[in-house]
Amino acid sequence: MIKLYDYVLSVNCYKQRLMMDILGVEYESIPIDFYPGLEHKGDAFKKINPLGHIPVIDDDGFILRDAHAILVYLAAKYDTSGLWYPTADPELIGETAQWMLFAEGTTNTASAARLHVNLGYDFDIDAVRDGAHKLFRVLEEHLWFREQEGLGWVCSGAHPTIADLAIFPDVILSEEGGISRLEYPAIKRWTDRFKRTPGFSIMPGIFPAGPG
Amino acid sequence: MTQDLPQRHVFQGKLLGRELAVWRAEDEFVNVWENRCLHRGVRLSIGINDGRELRCQYHGWRYANRTAGCTYIPAHPADAPAQTICNRTFPAIERYGLVWSGEDPSGELPNITVLDEGNPFGLRSISVNAPAAQVATHLLEYRFLPPGELGEEVAIVSVDQQNDLSVTLTSVVGVVSSTAVFFVQPVDAGISVIRGMLSEVPADETRIAVLRHHSTELSRLRDRVEAEAASQPPPEPMVAAIEQVSVKLSTFPKRSEGHRAQHRVQVIRKWSSGEGIMAFELESIGAPLPTYQPGAHIDLHLPNGLVRQYSLTNGPGEGSVYRIGVKKEPNSRGGSSCLHETVREGDVLAISEPRNNFPLRRDAVKTILIAGGIGITPLLAMAQTLSRDRLDYELHYFAQSDDHLAFGSILDELGAGVVRHLGLSPDETGAALGTLLRTYEPSSHMYVCGPGPMLGATRKIATEAGWPDEAVHFEYFKNTNEVDDSRTFEVSLARSALTLQVPGGTSILEVLREHGVPMPSSCEQGACGTCSVNVLDGEVDHQDVYLNDTEKKTGDRMMTCVSRAKSDRLVLDV
Amino acid sequence: MEEMRSGIVEEATLLGTLVHFSTHAGDPMAWRAESGMRVGDRLEPAAVTNPLPVLVAYGYVWTSLGVPPKQIFEIPEYAEPDRRNIHAATIGVSCSAPRAVENFLDMGHFPFVHTGILGIEPHTEVAEYDVQIDEKNEIWATECVFYQPLAAATSQGGQMTDYVYRVPHPFCVLLYKSCPLDANRKDVIGLFVRSVAEDHIEASMFLSLIDDESSDSAIRRFQQTIFAQDKPILENQFPKLLPLDPRIETPIRADSVAITYRRWLSDLGVTYGVIPAA
């Protein structure tokens, strides 16, 4: 069974749990005392990941780190439908890669702001909040036009991809970092849609959607 | 924007510093509410729109479509919420693909001729971090190209019309023109939203390109305004005052009082719904109909002067009309015969607020509903609620025959939850009840409504099978007991510091009213529970059919319309 | 204390004032951030000319910008030898201190916010309970019971769980909960709130448990999960400051302890983090 080195309040660990829940993949969560224990910075954990961060997965001896890389692996290996990581379609896979890089941006801004507020991480809070708003404006316009095209996801297919899954947690928890989403109605509709994906699961701080 | 309000979604908006929760119900009604639950101030925009009600995320309070009245408080599942727990609502009108609302709107909405005569086409709304007036000024210099001429470099743009927060522009390239109307929504002192529309829908093949053109150009305009606004001192945010709730609500909610027929309704549909049963659909002709809860009834004031109580059969969120069922009584004293024979579609009748003395708990692990004949009406409302909440329930409907079943279409919708028991003799009915009540499981509740003898039998069977009184809920439509009102006694009113004589032939209720004590009442025959008061001292002679045996033995409540004193004196908490 | 680095200057904001603190020979010191030392510097005790009062209690350093009482409220359980005292986390929240305290006093939200852990629908009823203010002017809510699914790892299905709530300080609140391992004793869970600003807090969670099975990190994980579930509620309450005017919100019987708390804050004259009644 896949082992996930995990922390319940980590956005990036949640991305892995969510992917595996949606794909129906069984996994074992190995809890890391991220806070206050800082176990991920300890010598024992650095043998697993010398960079000292989570998540990391161990799939029957194959060890992989970095949240968005793990999503690529999980979808490529376990999604038999080929929809979450759509390698069959060059344009779609290009878009997916593009928006996965966007998710690095939301992680480094919106989720950084959350770490600053929740746990006192040392970030320039005004800069990361501004950065998040800039990205959210781009995402808002993009998703609004997707709806106009009769589509609902960040890439141009009819089905969500790992790019939606990678961006969603950073966005839905942004208010914990003091980033209001009042100005982003198309983003709110997209989060509602994403919450209704079959297999969707929550983490503390996220409420499930009501009946579709 | 209308397009911001899909089904099962709650839009978070803000106008003049006040946050709003805006949601569309299944019946397409657009609700604009203050974005805070009255209970603990939690934003309703994080709540759940289930199509008919909005559920607060914090304690699960439910608020009805249209009225915003609270229909359920899960922490007190045995109580009906006070009628007056109602979120602050603002009026809303949909026009030109926009939802218009305001704090104290006065007058009419502006008529925009080009939009009235044209075919409005909504553009993407653009949020701007700048004051509304500044945004409106910049919009006068907005430049855009007409659909079909998007490849051009330059267009001549003129200002057709200009108000405080709106501007109409026409762009011309050669013989091609396009008119756009922009409204600036003042979100807060330093935040605005540009909501724009074209007067005509562009051709399908250019639709997306036109939308992109405006989105791009308006975003550029936004960047200019924001750069300008950033160089000025930021304005103080607006403060939206919070309206106080009533003094009554600020302590503990009590049931509403009064025996008045505040509402006027029109019979918009009357139809035969089963052998000897007429169904009526009543629509308000004044203020919207008040919030109701499953189990509630209304007083219906008939043209012949009689007042009768009827249970609402409505499911949750169907608040635009009230639906009742009336059985023709063979020995009618004028109530049911008047409704069957005299009242027609189009007639106007007076009704009271809905009152709920038969509230439905929604914290039961299993709920058994037992209806005898026309007793189905309150139980239909309950069954629809339980079914929507996906709670475990059974509705057992005892009737003479298939033809005697009322509201067949609702029964069909409920599907497998309904068990029909047709044409049973009293003994067979008793046996069937014995089977379905044979074991009591903790956290189960049963509700029964129907003819008096059947209710009596059901309650007896339940008690024998081990059902505790608090799990057995019943509603009598009438009190068939002979009321003995011969005794004379005294009542002391603890709170009003009054002592009054109650002579034979007069009820406590009547004596209280004569002395100016306002008392709610409804059926006035000891069946509905509306005139209940708490008893502080003295022994009560219970003559009602509303309280159960345990409650009667406890003796701390009484129905003032029929019950009297065994002791010489009663002290009431009035 | 366990998060402090010995002899290194650290900072925290208290009521809008930046405070520096550190330990010197094992004893804590705190002072207004005006000594010339910066965060991360080695402590130079002589540079602290104007120290703030400090005391150590329950594993935390307590200080005050004013003149505090000599003693802090008592938690006798802390000293019981067979208990485990655990600091679960300090987490920042954009809300006022009394909103966080009031949420901690609330059972009605368990099925909706802590679904499947502290409560579950349809078991939503909050039964009547008692609220009193004792001779030390502390609020006690007793005889509280609420249905908890999987109340203990050993139990199949849910059961009614007993709670006692205690408010010994405007911004500190304690909960005594049925102990699964010893029917005669209660586990203690505390929430100690430091107001960074009127609408921003850092809340510390403290536990004193009778439990020799769970690991510290498992206990912390549980407590952090619960608190993180409350966070979006606290951050979405409006107004952010707690209104003491009884006509701003609508209480029900289940809120008896909250109503007492609001009146008590009014009577104490607390003005920070609240909207005083007119």
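The helical segments of chain C are 97-104, 110-113, 216-235, 256-268.
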